[in-house]
Design goal:
Elements: E1 6-9, E2 12-15, H1 19-32, E3 36-41, H2 43-51, H3 53-61, E4 64-67, H4 70-78, H5 93-102, E5 106-111, H6 116-128, E6 131-136, H7 145-154, E7 159-163, H8 168-175, E8 184-187, H9 191-196, H10 204-208, H11 212-219, H12 221-241, H13 243-252
Parallel strand pairs: 3-4, 3-8, 5-6, 5-7, 7-8
Antiparallel strand pairs: 1-2
Helix pairs in contact: 1-5, 2-3, 2-12, 11-12
Length: 254
């Protein structure tokens, strides 16, 4: 399968894949042993890349940067591209897991608060029959890393899902990529919380209008105020500021 087109949005590379392409690529890579780092791109990630050069370098080096946020899809369209839709992990759990089950893939969940990954694993096993071969919370120190990596590698996992929040999950995955044996490493943010039922899913009608961020802000206003109320205008500013460069460099990449 050919790779989806990679363009720049706010100076950050985004691969214009749809759900089917995302599922097919991750399944193929894991099945064939093709090593890949997969990262979701949203407005928050674009803002963080502008402030954190190390994080930006990791995102640029990633093998697949799927459009996780609706704002990224809108911005790509405003730049004259033809995005094929959004790929939000919280809403594509079913097709993703079914494809991985059909391919007989083994998955390891790393991240979240103590007990969350285990709860997520129980649901994934029960509802989809997914082979979750190991779990570990994200509250480990540098001195624990060797044990964490050894547990992942000995599990035989072909997909490692890392949910420790931006930018820690991406920086950690990239720093240890050569020591990790799962072919596909997928960073997934708070997906474990949603899967475990700790966070309530966004109602479908809110999701259809691209207002999931407002729903999340209403649920956790103190924690997410800066990310959305300050971050969304900052994202728009960055897209406008880098408009010419993004179009030129995206065209050159064809």
């Amino acid at each position: 399968m050919s790779r989806p087109r990679r363009v720049l949005v706010g100076g950050v590379p985004v691969d214009l894949c749809d759900v089917d392409e995302f599922v097919t690529l991750t399944t193929q890579w894991a099945s064939t042993g093709r090593r890949a780092l997969v990262i979701g791109i949203n407005a928050h990630v674009v803002n963080m890349c502008a402030k954190n050069p190390e994080f930006a370098a990791v995102v640029t080096a990633s093998d697949l940067n799927f459009p996780d946020g609706q704002s990224v899809v809108w911005a790509a369209r405003a730049l004259g591209h033809r995005p094929r839709g959004r790929v939000p992990l919280t809403h594509i759990t079913a097709p993703m897991c079914r494809a991985w089950v059909a391919a007989d893939l083994r998955v390891y969940l790393l991240g979240g608060r103590p007990g969350v990954a285990e709860r997520a694993a129980e649901r994934l096993r029960r509802e989809y029959g997914l082979q979750v071969v190991g779990t570990r919370d994200g509250y480990f120190t540098d001195s624990d890393e060797a044990d964490v990596i050894a547990d992942i590698n000995t599990s035989g996992a072909q997909v490692l899902m890392v949910g420790m929040g931006n930018p820690r999950q991406e920086l950690w995955a990239y720093a240890h990529r050569e020591r990790l044996t799962p072919p596909v490493v997928l960073t997934c943010g708070g997906w474990f919380d949603w899967t475990a039922g700790i966070r309530r899913p966004c109602p479908p009608w809110i999701y259809r209008f691209g207002m999931e961020w407002a729903y999340r802000l209403a649920q956790e206003p103190r924690r997410l105020f800066t990310r959305y109320v300050v971050g969304n205008p900052s994202f728009i500013y960055r897209v406008i500021r880098s408009y010419r460069t993004d179009i030129r460099d995206s065209t050159d990449a064809l």
